[in-house]
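In response to the reviewer comment on reproducibility (Comment 2.3), we provide here a single inverse folding case reported in full, input and output, so that an independent group could reproduce the run without further information from us. The C-alpha cells appear first.
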C-alpha cells in the first residue's frame, strides 16, 4: 500500500482541501523513523515511528493523521524506503501496529532492495552445453549413422530408427484391455505405489466392556464433525516479527519515507574543496561546545613581570614550556556536514554531552555554517542538563530528509526528555535554523519550546 488515497466525504482529515480538488487522488508523503537493535537488515527487534505526513499543503502529525484507530502512516501493508544520508538502503513493510508509551508505532519486516532487472535484449545468448547428468528432456538432432548401421534391424522397426526409442506394443496375453502399453511398463512394480482397492468390510463389533478399543461410528454423517488426525495442522499462522520496546542503549535509527511517486535519491553529502576546512570548522565547534558545557580548559595565567636584572641573568637560559593540556573529551559526540540543497553551502551539526551522573550531565546541540572568512557561524544552539530534560529535551540528530518533497532537506532531531519523546524538523535557510514542525509525542507529551 502506498500513501495515495482519495478522501471520502466522511474522512477525518485534519487539514484543508480545495473544493475543486476534493474528488482527486491525494498524493501523500510520509516520513518516519525506523528504530532497531542488532544488525542492519537483520534486526533482533524493530519498530517504525511515524513523524509527519505531507498532504501537499502542510505537514500533519504522522501519529494522528487519519487515525481509525491506527494512523494511516502505520497502516497494514504500508511500504517505507529506508534512507541513509539521502540514499535508499532497504525497504520496510508494515504488517501490524500498536501503541507504545501512548504513541502509535508500526511493526513489520525489513527487506533488502530488489535486484535491478536485466535487459534480456542486450543479454548475450546462453549456451547450454549438453550434460548427460541433467535429466530434463531436451531436443537433439538425430546422430549420423554409425558402424552399427549395417546390422539388421529388429522385426517391425525401420533400420534407421533409434534402438533406445520406446515403442508401443499390444499386451501378449490379456485381450480384455485393448489399450496399448509402453515397452517400459515391463519394469517390476513398485511395492509402495498407491493402488485402488475395494473397500474392506466393516470391522466386527467390539464388546462394550473392552477397554482401550475404539470402534467406528457409521451412524455419524455430519461432514462438519471435527476429527482427530495425525500430522501438522493445516491452519496457517501469521508471522510474528520481534518488536522493540523501550529505549535500549544500543538502539539505532534511520529515516524512512513512503511516497506513491518513484522519486530519485537525493544525497546530502557535502564535498569540500579543501578537506582541511572541515577539520578546522569541527575543531571550532568542539571548542564552542566545551565552553557551553563548562568543560573548557582555563587560559594559562600570565607570567609575573621580571626586573631588568633578572632578565639579564635568565636571558641565556629560556624557561621550559609546559606541555599543552589535552582538551576535555566530548561524550557521545556526533558531527555531520550536509548540503541541504543542490549548490548550497555546508551545514554543520554537532551534538555532545559532558561526563557525570544524569542530573549533572549537560547536553549541547549546534547548527552552524561557514562565514565569509571560513569560520564557524553558529545559527542554532541549545544547551540543557539532566535535571531539566522535560522542559528542554536533549536533541539527537537522526538524519536529513526531504519532508516537503521540494528537493530541499530538513534536519530531523529526536527530542528526548525524561518522560516524553518527540521528533522535530528544522529548516536551514538564509542564515537561520527554524523549527518548522514538532510531533505531539509519546506518553502524552506536550510541544517544547526552544
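Designed residues, in position order:
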Amino acid at each position: 500500500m502506498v500513501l495515495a488515497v482519495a478522501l471520502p466525504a466522511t474522512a477525518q482529515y485534519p487539514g484543508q482541501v480545495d473544493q475543486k480538488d476534493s474528488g482527486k487522488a491525494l498524493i501523500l508523503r510520509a516520513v518516519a523513523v525506523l528504530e532497531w537493535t542488532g544488525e542492519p537488515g537483520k534486526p533482533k527487534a524493530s519498530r517504525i515511528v511515524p513523524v509527519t505526513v505531507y498532504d501537499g499543503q502542510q505537514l500533519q502529525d504522522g501519529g494522528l493523521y487519519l487515525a481509525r484507530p491506527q494512523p494511516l502512516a502505520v497502516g497494514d501493508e504500508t511500504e517505507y524506503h529506508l534512507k541513509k544520508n539521502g540514499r535508499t538502503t532497504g525497504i520496510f513493510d508494515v504488517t501490524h501496529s500498536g501503541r507504545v508509551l501512548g504513541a502509535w508505532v508500526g511493526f513489520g519486516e525489513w527487506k533488502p532492495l530488489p535486484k535491478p532487472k536485466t535487459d534480456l535484449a542486450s543479454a548475450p545468448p546462453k549456451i547450454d552445453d549438453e550434460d548427460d547428468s541433467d535429466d530434463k528432456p531436451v531436443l537433439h538432432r538425430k546422430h549420423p549413422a554409425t558402424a552399427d548401421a549395417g546390422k539388421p534391424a529388429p522385426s517391425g522397426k525401420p533400420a534407421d530408427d533409434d534402438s533406445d526409442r520406446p515403442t508401443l506394443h499390444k499386451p501378449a496375453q490379456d485381450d480384455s484391455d485393448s489399450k496399448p502399453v509402453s515397452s517400459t511398463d515391463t519394469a517390476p512394480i513398485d511395492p509402495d505405489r498407491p493402488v485402488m482397492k475395494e473397500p474392506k468390510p466393516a470391522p466386527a463389533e467390539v464388546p462394550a466392556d473392552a477397554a482401550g478399543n475404539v470402534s467406528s461410528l457409521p451412524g455419524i454423517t455430519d461432514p462438519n464433525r471435527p476429527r482427530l488426525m495425525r500430522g501438522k495442522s493445516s491452519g496457517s499462522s501469521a508471522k510474528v516479527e520481534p518488536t522493540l520496546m523501550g529505549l535500549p542503549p544500543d538502539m539505532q535509527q534511520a529515516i524512512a519515507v513512503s511516497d506513491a511517486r518513484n522519486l530519485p535519491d537525493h544525497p546530502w553529502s557535502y564535498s569540500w574543496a579543501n578537506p582541511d576546512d572541515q577539520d578546522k570548522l569541527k575543531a571550532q565547534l568542539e571548542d564552542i561546545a566545551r565552553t557551553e558545557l563548562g568543560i573548557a580548559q582555563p587560559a594559562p595565567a600570565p607570567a609575573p613581570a621580571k626586573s631588568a636584572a633578572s632578565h639579564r641573568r635568565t636571558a641565556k637560559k629560556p624557561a621550559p614550556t609546559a606541555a599543552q593540556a589535552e582538551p576535555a573529551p566530548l561524550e557521545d559526540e556526533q558531527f555531520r556536514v550536509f548540503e541541504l540543497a543542490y549548490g548550497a553551502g555546508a551545514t554543520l551539526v554537532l551534538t555532545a554531552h559532558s561526563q557525570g551522573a544524569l542530573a549533572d550531565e549537560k547536553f549541547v546541540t549546534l547548527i552552524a555554517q561557514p562565514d565569509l572568512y571560513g569560520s564557524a557561524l553558529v545559527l542554532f544552539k541549545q544547551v540543557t542538563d539532566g535535571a531539566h530534560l522535560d522542559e528542554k529535551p536533549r536533541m539527537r540528530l537522526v538524519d536529513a530528509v526531504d519532508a516537503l518533497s521540494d528537493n530541499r532537506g530538513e534536519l530531523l532531531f529526536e527530542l528526548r526528555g525524561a518522560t516524553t519523546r518527540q521528533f522535530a524538523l528544522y529548516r536551514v535557510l538564509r542564515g537561520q535554523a527554524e523549527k518548522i514542525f514538532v510531533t505531539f509525542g509519546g506518553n502524552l507529551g506536550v510541544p517544547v519550546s526552544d
